[in-house]
Design goal:
InterPro entries: Arc1-like_N, Glutathione-S-Trfase_C_sf, NA-bd_OB-fold, tRNA-bd_dom, Tyrosine-tRNA_ligase_regulator
Low-confidence stretches: 1-8, 192-211, 417-421
Organism: Talaromyces atroroseus
GO molecular function: aminoacyl-tRNA deacylase activity; enzyme activator activity; phosphatidylinositol-3,5-bisphosphate binding; phosphatidylinositol-3-phosphate binding; tRNA binding
Number of helices: 12
Keywords: RNA-binding, tRNA-binding
Structural class: alpha+beta
Helix content: 25-40%
Radius of gyration: 29 Å
Shape: globular
Order of helices and strands: HHHHHHHHEEHHEEEEEEEEEEEHEEHEE
Mean pLDDT: 82
CATH class of the largest domain: Mainly Beta
Number of strands: 17
Pfam families: Arc1p_N_like, tRNA_bind
Distance between the termini: 46 Å
Length: 447
């Protein structure tokens, strides 16, 4: 494999061949740490980005040296660090390309090529390194000029084990809990009991029993606590809210841009402004606009032209549990209509039309079904409760090409729907007014 036979020389050769406008073929040396903004001139790199690139180049250099010495311990440590870093990132900088990604590719491509399927995607495999190697050699983001016969053959469908994606919120809660437990343990060590620490009480050779004063105080506290519990009547449980499609967080979304998913032919990856507050869960800051956005993967490639996904408004479901789709975390779902099919038929055959919110509705504005706006959307739908699966069958389009909710398609709320709305059909409307529509599909299902 030409690109990996000698990492340093092959990296320079690859850079010269791929970026002749930025890297002179006559140059005998190249300062890799300064090469990124020259190669990827249309991106903006901060001082923090530059420091990160420099750090990763140093790490990759250490990995190269470790392979030369066959130092398995260092190799394993660096591979684990790199794999964990790439779990939640497309590139080493997150989303922006850098020369560090290409340097890593030059070192790791021949290694990955020799790995077994278990080493690549087994339970203890380096899934995200494999995905990164495939992305760098094939992704348009890098546009490397590598002949097909020199690329590492990677079967993206041959996955032996699906690792559980790290939930940043759960990880934060876990660390918070560990910190609290550590503080509690430290406090217990210094708590004074009868003029001595608990440690001293337990270690005192003259007695193994707590003093009478301590025992009496503990007993009195326990009795007071029990009496307090007896006096306080149990508050009646609040009445359960009637089931409603308004539990689903539907909003106007503005697609800033959409691209083909680097690892899946059927998916688009869209950057969507959903009106979230800065710092909200499952959001990031779009560098080009400074807006708070969500990354959304949609199985619309081949069904909706990519040009129709650019700079337009859509309706998005914002409180489904985020899922990682071929290495990219998707934090919402774009609503689209398609013809209803009989059981057993292909429900993704098309045609497909995106749901259009009212033209004047701003990004982030709530969208709801008339007569079903009494309940506030849940922060995140619990997959076990199957709220989306319960109400989605009622999402439909009318003969007037309006999107609505037909309660007759949801047996558990048929009567409630009729009583609440006076009709079995409630139109999908924006809070500021106006009905959501589709282009031409009548009597279609919406999901």
């Amino acid at each position: 494999m030409a690109t990996a036979s000698a990492p340093e020389s092959s990296l320079l050769s690859l850079l010269y061949r791929s970026y002749p406008a930025a890297i002179s073929p006559d140059a005998t040396e190249l300062d890799l740490a300064q090469a990124t903004p020259k190669i990827f001139a249309h991106y903006t790199y901060t001082d923090e980005d530059a420091a990160s690139v420099k750090q990763w180049l140093a790490t990759i250099g250490a990995l190269t040296a470790a392979y030369a010495k066959n130092d398995t311990q260092v190799i394993e440590t660096i591979l684990k660090e790199l794999n964990a870093h790439l779990e939640t990132r497309t590139t080493l900088l997150g989303a922006k390309p850098s020369v560090a990604d290409i340097a890593g590719y030059a070192v790791l491509a021949p290694v990955v090529e020799k790995w077994t399927a278990e080493e690549r995607t087994g339970e203890k495999g380096y899934h995200y390194i494999v995905r990164h190697v495939d992305f760098v050699q094939n992704g348009s983001l890098f546009a490397l000029r590598i002949p097909d016969e020199e690329k590492v053959a990677i079967d993206l469908d041959d996955i032996r084990f699906f690792p559980k994606a790290v939930d940043p919120k759960e990880e934060k809660e876990r660390k918070k809990k560990e910190k609290a437990e550590a503080q509690l343990a430290a406090q217990e060590k210094t708590t004074v009991v009868a003029g001595r620490t608990k440690e001293a009480v337990h270690q005192a050779p003259e007695s193994t029993e707590a003093s009478p004063a301590v025992s009496n105080r503990d007993k009195e506290k326990k009795e007071k606590k029990e009496k307090k519990k007896e006096k306080q009547p149990k508050a009646p449980a609040p009445p359960a809210a009637p089931p409603s499609p308004s539990l689903i967080d539907l909003r106007v979304g503005h697609i800033l841009r959409a691209i083909n998913h680097p690892n899946a032919d059927s998916l688009y990856v869209s950057t969507i402004d959903c009106g979230d507050a800065p710092g909200s869960d499952n959001t990031s800051v779009d560098e080009a606009t400074g807006k708070t956005v969500r990354t959304v993967c949609s199985g619309l490639n081949g069904l909706v032209p990519l040009e129709e996904m650019q700079g337009r408004k859509v309706v998005v479901v914002c409180n489904l549990k985020p899922v990682t789709m071929r290495g990219i975390k998707s934090a919402a779902m774009v609503l689209a209509a398609s013809p209803k099919v009989a059981e057993g038929e292909d429900s993704h055959a098309g045609p497909v039309e995106l749901v259009n919110p009212p033209a004047d509705a701003p990004a982030g504005e709530r969208v709801f079904f008339e007569g079903w706006s009494t309940s506030e959307p849940e922060k995140q739908l619990n997959p076990k409760k199957k709220i989306w699966e319960t109400f989605q069958p009622g999402f439909t389009t009318t003969d007037n090409l309006e999107v609505g909710f037909d309660s007759t398609q949801v047996p558990s709320i048929q009567s409630a729907g009729t009583a609440a709305t006076g009709s079995t059909l409630g139109k999908l409307v924006a809070k500021s007014g106006g009905v959501c529509t589709v282009k031409s599909l009548k009597g279609a299902t919406v999901r």
